[in-house]
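Case study 2.
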Amino acid sequence: MATEKLAARRDNKAQRLKKVGRLARGKFVAPANVPQLLKRIIESGDIVCLEGDNQKQADFLANQLAALDRKDLHDLHLVMSCIALPAHIQLFKKGMIRQVDFCYAGPQGTAVADLVKARKFPIGALHTYHELYARYYIDLTPRVALIAAAQADRRGNLFLAANTEETPAIVEPTAFSDGIVLAQVDEIVDKLPRVDIPADQVDFVVEAPYPMHLQALFTRDPAAITDVQVLMAMVALRGIYEKYEVQSLNHGVGFNTAAIELLLPTYGERLGLKGKICKYWMVNPVPTMIPAIEAGWVEGVFSVGGEVGMERYTAAHSDVFFTGRDGSFHSNRAMGQLAGHYAVDMFIGASLQIDVNGNSSTVSKSRITGFGGAPNMGCQPNGRRHPTKAWLKAGAEAQRGPGSSPGRKLVVQLVETFQAGRVPTFVEELDAQDASIRKALHGVAPVMIYGDDVTHIVTEEGIANLSACRSVAERQAAIRAVAGYTPVGLKRSKRATADLRARGIVQLPEDVGVSPSEASRSLLAAQDIKGLVRWSQGLYDPPPQFVDW
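Prediction:
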C-alpha cells in the first residue's frame, strides 16, 4: 500500500512537470510565465507552503498567486509561518483557501481578526514554529512549496544569505516526498558564495523583478527606551540574571530587553557581572547587542534570522556569530528554536496580556497575531537532562517533589503594568478565552505561555517569583502584588503582599538592591541609533527609517 502511494505521488509529480512544457527552460522560468506555471504545478485541494518568515518573504510568488482567481485555483490548504503581506490576505478574500495552518500574523493581525469574524479565514490551528515544521514531516507535507532565496547558480543551487530562516524546514519534506519546489531569487549568478539548498531539491527558479521583502523587524532605537524600562532592566539584572547566574539565554525582542542589553557594559560592569552572566545567546543579530559584544560580554550568538544592516558587522565578528567560509552570516529558524527550547537557561520576553494565573497571550478580540516561537522557548522542556547552575537553582526553588525534574528553565515575563493608551497588561481573563476566538480555533484558547511554565514576572513594581508559590492562591496574590494600578493589582491584599515579600516571593526594587531614583536613560551604553553605529566602528548600516542625522 505504501509503495502504491509513493508511486502515485511520483506519477502525479511527473504529470505536473510535463504540463509545464515551454514555460520553463530547464529549471528556469521567466517572471511573466509564473502565473501560468502556478496554475500547472498546483492543483486545487493541494497543501501549499508559501514561505513567509519574520523577515524574509517570498513576496513575488505571493503576489503572483494572489493575482489568480478562484476559478484558477481553489480549496488550497495553505501552510505558512507568518501571514505578513497584503497578498496573503487577498488569497482569503478571493475564497481560494480551504484551510490555513500558521504561526503568526503580526502586521496583518487586525485583517486576520476581521476575516475570522466574516468566516473567510478557516483556521486549522494556530501553531508554534516548531510544531508547524514538525507537521510538515507528518500530516501537513507540502505538495508545492513556494520559497525565497538570495541567489541561484546556473544549476539551480540556492544561496540563502543571512536569512536562511526556515527554508530548509520547508524544502526538505517537500522535496523528499515528491513535491514541487519553486524558488524566487534576487539574482542568478555563475558561482554562489556557498550552497545552502542543493539543486536536486529545487524544481524551478525564477529571478524576481524586484528584491525579496526583508524587514528590519528586530531593530529597536535606544532613543525610545524609557526610564521605567531602564528600572525594570535593572531589577531583572539584580533579581534574576545575577541571582541565578544566567549564562545562556534568549531575549524576546522589545524595548524592555533592549534596555537590558544596553545596560550590560555600564550597570552590569558596575555590578561585576561580566563573565558571570549573558555569555551564550540565541537571538537575532539585534543592533542593541553591539555594545555588549564590543565590551567583551558575549562569547557566542546563534540566530533564527538576520537583521537588515547588520551584515558587515556580523561578517567582522565571526568569533561571535555563526558564519560560513565565505564570511557571510548564517541563521536557521528551526535549529534556533530547538536551541531556545533545550539549550538555554532562560527565556525572557513580553506579552500583551497576562491573566491572574500567569497565562499570557498576544491574541486580543481585535487582533489575532499568533505567537510564533515564544511557546517553544517559554515553556519547561521536560526532556532536558544537562545540568547548569541556573537550571538546578531554579529547580530547587520550585520544590515540586519526587518524580519531577531536578531543574527548571527560567521563563520570565518582563512587562509594564500598562500598555500604550493606558490599556492594562494584567487582566482577570485573557481575551484569548473569548468564545468567538475559541470557536474559530476549534475550542482551543490561543494562550501563548501557560502560567505553569512561568517562573517570574517582572514589572516596574518588582518581581513575582511564581515558581516559589505553593498554591494557586499564592500565585494569584504574587501576580496582583506586581500588577500596579491595573484592575488586577487593585485587588491585592496588603497583608498577603507583606507576607510574600517577607518570604522573598515578591521583591520590590529596593529588595534586590535597586534604587528607582538611579533608573535613568543615562545608564544606557548607547542613547540612539547613531550611538550604536559608533560602537560598531561604522560597520552597522541602519535601515533608512532609523537614520535621522
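The chain has a mean pLDDT of 95.
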